[in-house]
Amino acid sequence: MNQKNFSGSTFKRCSCKNPTTGRRLGTACPKIKRRNGAWSSDHGTWFFQAELPHQHDGTRRTRRRGGYATQTEAQGQLDKMASLVKAAEPHGSTAVTRVGDLIDNKLQTGEPFPPPADIAKQLHAETQNLGNIPTVAEWLTTWLSRRKKLRGATKLSYSGHIRLWLEPHLGHYRLDALTVEHIASMFDAMTERNEAIIAAKASDDPEIRKSVRGVRVMGPATMQRYRATLRTALNAAIRDPNINITFNPAAYVELDSGKRPKALLWTPSRVERWQRTGQKPSRVMVWTPDQVGRFLDHAEGHPYYVLLHLIAYRGLRRGEACGLPWWDVDLAAGSITITTAFVQVGWKAEFGEPKSEASGRTVALDSASVEVLRAQRRRQEALRQLAGADWVEQGIVCTEPDGRPLQPAKLSDAFHVIAEAAGLPPVRLHDLRHGAATLMLAAGADLKVVQELLGHSSITITADTYTHVLPELAHQTAEAAASMVPRGKERKLLPAPPRRPGNAGGHRR
């Protein structure tokens, strides 16, 4: 028998206590053994300690029971448990874990163990009837290996979901045995983890707070992504002709919506509150046009300025900007075409296709952006001559000094350094892309035009993101329009109508 699946030992204990401390004497009791070291036959009772097969999540399962008159009785219980585990081992780890559950249940209820032959017969029959239905863990591995055309970042995300939660919590179930309740229990565990993190961060103990420093809770959107991964994998299993399942329980698990956070402008009142409390009103904050201008003023002259300019003015994604090749730039026509992206995948970066079909688009350039690109071409030519034979030609608009592609993470780091130096309220580099949308909205563009500029696959995404920005920009636009009308210094307003006698301070009925 595989020793890691089961082990056990026997020992003897009595109920004698130390008269001073009140604690049990245990093996220190002088009556529990004879003078020759042998166990006393008339004092104490026998116990066993069993290491059952690990639970589904891999945690140990140690059980102790006592009250047996002889060592033979205690050892007999261990032998019965060992025989049950041995009967399950030919049927795989899932069967072993299930037998561990059975043993655990019988120990708790006090019921006798079934004969090992009955367990072996039952497991054999199940194996014959189930055919080739895999466990959730087996299927997730197969499903991911078949997804040959996944983007690197997407595959990394799927792998993380499977490794961190899906396999540890659900991997031991057969596909046809997986239920809505099983999946809901996994999300309950996520919620309990969140509560533990929140409590630890609020603890008075500095060591406890330190233990969760940098640890983030899992929000509704993250949980939705986990469910989406599982739902996609199970849908693929339903379509597989070799797997006889027709129900996808992941589609019926109720979770918080995890809706896209609303973008909010950094208005003066919000900036003041942030400076006072350090709190952001929303995860997605957007600079006003004035703040975008202040940022670009501080960024001008930086080696990555051309990329920051294109993101702020024309709404390119980080990967689209870092991977933009010169052959997709038409300065004469004043446009660029998005056909590729250089995206971060873990600690590495790789070239790939744009994020979606809508992301492959042609972006019109304003005259200022055209001039910035012309200046970048002159700067890059100077770098090429300086590097000489060490220059690595990639044809990319913005590169390292030797021509190699710029790591996207370095662009993010530079963005945050410049924004902090400019004294601006915090936004993400991705939110600088929202700045392009705010500029267009402030100029009166409709959402459809903004959708096409940003490469959103649906106008719903654009509307959900900028619903809160539109009214604030509309107010600013109204004030700007009103300020364009010249007025005299002294404005003659109509006098207020006289009040009717007998109704001072009151309202007419």
UniProtKB/TrEMBL annotation:
Residues 53-75, 480-509 are annotated as: Disordered. Gene3D superfamilies: 1.10.150.130, Intergrase catalytic core. The keyword Amino-acid biosynthesis does not apply. Residues 282-479 form the Tyr recombinase domain. Residues 134-238 form the Core-binding (CB) domain. The keyword Transcription regulation does not apply. GO terms for biological process: DNA integration; DNA recombination. Pfam families: Phage_integrase. InterPro entries: CB, DNA_brk_join_enz, Integrase-like_cat_sf, Integrase_catalytic, Integrase_recombinase_N, Tyrosine_recombinase_XerCD. It comes from the Bacteria. GO terms for molecular function: DNA binding. Keywords: DNA recombination, DNA-binding. PANTHER family: INTA PROTEIN, PHAGE INTEGRASE-RELATED. This is Integrase. It comes from Amycolatopsis camponoti.
